[in-house]
Amino acid sequence: MTKDDPILTPRDTDIADAELHARLMRTWTSPPGLWAAIATVDHKVIARRYIATAFVFLILGGILALAMRLQLSRPEARYISPDRYNQIFTMHGTNMMFLFAVPVMEAMAVYLVPLMVGTRNIAFPRLNAFSYWMFLGGGLLLWLSFALDTAPDVGWFAYVPLSGPEYGPGKRADLWAQMITFTEIAALAVAVEIVVTVFKQRAPGMSLDRVPVLVWAMLVMAFLVIFAMPAIMFASSTLILDRLVGTQFYNPAKGGDALLWQHLFWFFGHPEVYIIFLPAVGMVSTILPTFVRRPLFGYMLLVGALIATGILSFGLWVHHMFVTGLPRVGESFFTASSMAIALPAGAQIFCWLATIWAGKPVFRVPFLFVLGFIVTFVLGGLTGVMVASLPFDTQVHDTYFVVAHFHYVLVGGAVFPLLGAVYYWFPKMTGRMMSERLGKLSFWLIFAGFHLTFFPMHILGLIGMPRRIYTYQPELPWAGLNLFVSLSSLVLAAGFLVFFIDVVRSRRSGLPAGRNPWGASTLEWATASPPPAYNFAHIPVVFSREPLWDEKDALPVTSGLRTDRRELLVTSLAAAIPQARESVPEDSLWPFFAALATSAMLIGSIFTPWAVVWGAFPMAVTLIGWFWPKGTKEEMS
């Protein structure tokens, strides 16, 4: 496709005349009212719900973390009972991993990917709505169980036999297993939507070598979800079958294998780290060029590193099992692969440093969070190479050294870029700017509080403090550092408090943002802030990796999509050549009803297997209603 192609219309995609805008708004806007809000399939509305809900779970998980630090602040403390502490410990990890980290990254993809590839909605928009309701149902199930004192108490990893029927009576482990099913259904649904959107709905001309790095990161993340999460769904399903039906998957006395659980769990659990980390890498690679005012250095190397990281992430899971007595040959292989994955991560860091070195940095809040990420992730990566070594890991396994490493990689590698992304894309989502003054205060409190909280945990691990303990004796040399860590966690909490205050304040009274307040180069900034329901009045056409920098006067656009019904432009996989116009499903309550029926079936199955049989009937009814309308596809002439 060239600039002389007849498909192009010599109009600026920023400007839609009043009549066209009115027609598109009538077609794409959901009507007012509660039921209409529930029925909406607008990817932006659903993504904002996802993001807000995930941050609520972050706040709740942070409160649990402060409660644990209170309990460990001094020896033999009795602030929290042992049983409640086990619930809090399990809830914190489960909440942060399954209800915050993965969902919030997918939510950012749901909002940004359609805008960044120049389309009007995400693929399978009703499935997108269904995924949110399933995610919300899983979160409510977990937190209601905590409120009723029946929360899971077997750790976020739920190792057998502790979580099995012999040692885990009651319904606590069952609730954990079914919550996994809720969240993984939601995650898999979003992953499928992202893959199809990126492959088949890109703007004309956006060939694979022009796709924004963030979109590449979200695409690799989606494939990781598709290939990794069935393992944890299978594991949680077989666990609940052992507990409720009497199967023996994990009972060695009956031919089962307790280590099978760890293999299944960590085959999912280590790619999950990169499911969280890779979107953060994409965010950094998108924010950085904007604030150094130059294109990203090493685009192809960065994309290759993303793909390589995704592939290598499936060869690391056994380094969580080095002390289980596996064959030495296998342990040597996983030691090597655990070290090898540092190579693409290092390549990415050098590309970012080269971009900064050759640019003219502007130290705004999003850029500060990017710098904080680079520093923190390098430290976390260094300790990651250390625990990849079998002799060293044998010594520090299940100590606070691993807790420190884990948080350096996940908080430093994901939360810092995420907060920077919130400051960066908040104007696009709301039309208002966040405060630079409060943002910088938040950054420095979070950066200092994080390192003061988690770096001493390395030392605690090296002097022998084990993970997952409820209390400790006063004669052990851990009291001083634990008190320091607990006090430092208050600094970290204060930083997040300032951040949330800034979000609320800016949403109500922040300065108007304008269309492209940062002067960024990617397509999401080619439309209004916040975007209209239809995203783009005309679908843009792309000729470079930085379309808004290279086409400063007028961005070429296409014409031909109808205004009297919701339509998308379908393009080819590699070169993004227009192929067809496809209608988009209208708003519908059926995804909500389908989520209710599925939730009732899954919760009922905790108490009786017959719930699966009887629950299939309402699920079938809702699915028939869901798929009754048929869309049409028209070939491009």
Characterization of this structure:
This protein is mainly alpha-helical and 637 residues long. The protein has a single domain (41-527), classed as Cytochrome c oxidase-like, subunit I domain (Cytochrome C Oxidase, Chain A, Up-down Bundle). The protein has helices at residues 18-28, 34-39, 43-71, 82-117, 125-147, 172-200, 213-244, 258-292, 299-312, 328-340, 342-357, 365-388, 390-396, 400-430, 436-462, 479-509, 547-550, 590-605, 610-627; strands spanning 8-9, 557-558, 567-571, 578-583, 633-635. The strands form two sheets. A three-stranded antiparallel beta sheet has the order 3-4-5, with no helix packed on it. Strands 1-2 form a two-stranded antiparallel sheet. α3 (43-71) packs parallel to α5. The radius of gyration is 25 Å and the shape is globular. Residues 6-15 have low confidence and may be disordered.
Rounded radius of gyration (Å): 25 Å
CATH homologous superfamily assignment: Cytochrome c oxidase-like, subunit I domain
**CATH topology (fold) name:** Cytochrome C Oxidase, Chain A
Return the CATH architecture: Up-down Bundle
Per DSSP E runs of 2 or more residues, the count of β-strands stands at 5
How far apart the termini lie comes to 15 Å
Sheet with the most strands: spatial strand order: 3-4-5
User: How many domain units?
Assistant: 1
With helices defined by DSSP (H or I, 4 residues minimum), what is the helix count? 19
Mean pLDDT: 92
Overall structural class, as computed from helix and strand content, comes to: mainly alpha
**Residues in β-strands, percent:** under 5%
Which descriptor suits the 3D outline?
globular
CATH class: Mainly Alpha
Instruction: Write the H/E string, N to C.
Output: EHHHHHHHHHHHHHHHHHEEEHHE
DSSP helix fraction: 55-70%
